């Protein structure tokens, strides 16, 4: 047996202490109530029997445990079937920070990235693509779709400065891309394409590696820019820093090398194209045989028993009032 989201089971860390606190509190209140009566009058007071109280507490604990297990969505089965890859889902992470205006490679960097991305769209057939622009923040501009006309329209409006907050939230964008790809069917390959000229010093490589391995995501990098750098031209003027010096935007090769070595990413090198890389990737994966484990959800079982146990607890709450008085 496995769980769709085992982390929900950790909620017991919260409700178990609360339940213990509730039992201790009620016990104290019950004892305080008993002290209001003389021993000779206790038999006339309506006090739930000790056995009944213990049973109710056991039922409450059991019901909460069953509801927690149901919420975690247990699954059984694990039947293995052979299948082939049916397509590829691609989440494109596109840098729209102002540095993408730099012109060190035959025009602005962002224009080259857009042309290569449109070339990819023209070569796809039945595969889905999502667009995630980022700068100092990231957002899902277009979810996974195979409507290539809409995709080309969205790509055409990608431009530095479309996100007001500047910076490099690449890690956030990659997490958003991975989350978007979670909806992909198990028979589809998953890929994140990063088109950027900058690094993200806050990127948690360990967390990202765990995420891409868990979701079986392929990473492709298209670094734009050079190590020598180029000035950032916005309109007819150049971007200046606080000292009124022209900003020179340089690519951090070390960052991209770390993405390759740690995350297993593939770099699209100068002279290559994204479309050729994806074509080769599809050729190698389309005929690839894979084994899938088919699981059936069984949350209905603990949910049903949880409802039954809670109903019994509810009945005892009323039945106890008219039951035997504790002596």
* CATH homology superfamily of the largest domain: von Willebrand factor, type A domain
CATH class of the largest domain: Alpha Beta
Approximately what portion of the residues adopt beta-strand conformation? Answer: 15-25%
Identify low-pLDDT runs: 322-327
Tell me which CATH architecture of the largest domain applies here: 3-Layer(aba) Sandwich
Major sheet: 6 strands, mixed
Q: What does the average pLDDT come to? A: 83
CA-CA gap between termini: 47 Å
Features:
single chain, 327 residues, alpha/beta, 41% helix, Rossmann fold, 6-stranded mixed sheet, 3-stranded antiparallel sheet
Mind sketching the topology for me?
Blueprint: E1 2-3, H1 12-34, H2 50-71, E2 74-84, E3 87-95, H3 109-123, E4 128-134, E5 142-145, H4 148-156, H5 170-181, E6 188-196, H6 205-214, E7 217-223, E8 230-231, E9 233-234, E10 237-238, E11 248-249, H7 253-263, E12 266-267, H8 274-286, E13 289-297, H9 300-319
Parallel strand pairs: 3-4, 3-6, 6-7, 7-12
Antiparallel strand pairs: 1-2, 2-13, 4-5, 8-11, 9-10
What does this structure look like?
It is a single chain. With 327 residues, the protein is an alpha/beta fold. It folds into 2 domains: 2-78 and 296-322, no CATH class; 86-286, Rossmann fold. Helix content is 41%, strand content 21%. It has 9 helices and 13 strands. The chain has helices at residues 12-34, 50-71, 109-123, 148-156, 170-181, 205-214, 253-263, 274-286, 300-319, and strands spanning 2-3, 74-84, 87-95, 128-134, 142-145, 188-196, 217-223, 230-231, 233-234, 237-238, 248-249, 266-267, 289-297. The strands form 4 sheets. The protein has a 6-stranded mixed beta sheet with strand order 5-4-3-6-7-12, with helices on both faces. Strand 4 (128-134) and strand 5 form a beta hairpin. Helix 1 runs antiparallel to helix 2. The longest helix is centred in the first third of the chain and has 23 residues, at 12-34. The model is unreliable at 322-327 (pLDDT under 50).
């Amino acid at each position: 047996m496995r769980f769709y989201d085992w982390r929900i089971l950790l909620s017991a860390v919260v409700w178990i202490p609360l339940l213990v606190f509730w039992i201790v509190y009620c016990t104290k209140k019950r004892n305080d109530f008993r002290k209001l009566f003389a021993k000779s009058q206790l038999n006339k007071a309506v006090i739930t029997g000790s056995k009944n109280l213990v049973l109710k507490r056991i039922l409450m604990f059991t019901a909460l445990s069953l509801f927690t297990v149901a919420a975690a969505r247990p699954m059984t089965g694990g039947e293995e079937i052979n299948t082939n890859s049916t397509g590829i889902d691609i989440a494109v992470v596109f840098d729209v920070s102002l540095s993408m205006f730099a012109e060190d490679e035959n025009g602005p960097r962002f224009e080259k990235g857009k042309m290569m991305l449109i070339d990819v769209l023209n070569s796809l057939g039945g595969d889905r693509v999502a667009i995630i622009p980022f700068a100092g923040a990231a957002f899902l501009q277009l979810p996974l779709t195979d409507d290539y006309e809409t995709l080309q329209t969205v790509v055409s409006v990608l431009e530095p400065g479309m996100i007001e907050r500047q910076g490099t939230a690449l890690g956030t964008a990659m997490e958003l891309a991975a989350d978007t790809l979670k909806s992909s069917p198990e028979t589809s390959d998953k890929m994140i394409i990063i088109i950027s000229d900058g690094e993200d010093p806050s990127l948690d490589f360990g967390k990202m590696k765990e995420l891409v391995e868990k979701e079986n995501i392929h990473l492709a990098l298209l670094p734009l820019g050079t190590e020598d750098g180029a000035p950032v031209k916005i309109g007819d003027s150049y971007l200046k820093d606080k000292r009124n010096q022209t900003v020179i935007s340089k690519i951090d090769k070390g960052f991209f090398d770390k993405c390759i070595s740690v995350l297993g990413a593939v770099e699209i090198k100068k002279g290559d194209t994204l479309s050729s890389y994806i074509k080769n990737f599809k050729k190698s994966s389309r005929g690839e045989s894979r084994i899938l484990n088919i699981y059936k959800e069984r949350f209905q079982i603990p949910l049903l028993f949880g409802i039954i146990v809670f109903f019994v607890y509810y009945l005892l709450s009323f039945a106890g009032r008219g039951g035997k008085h504790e002596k």
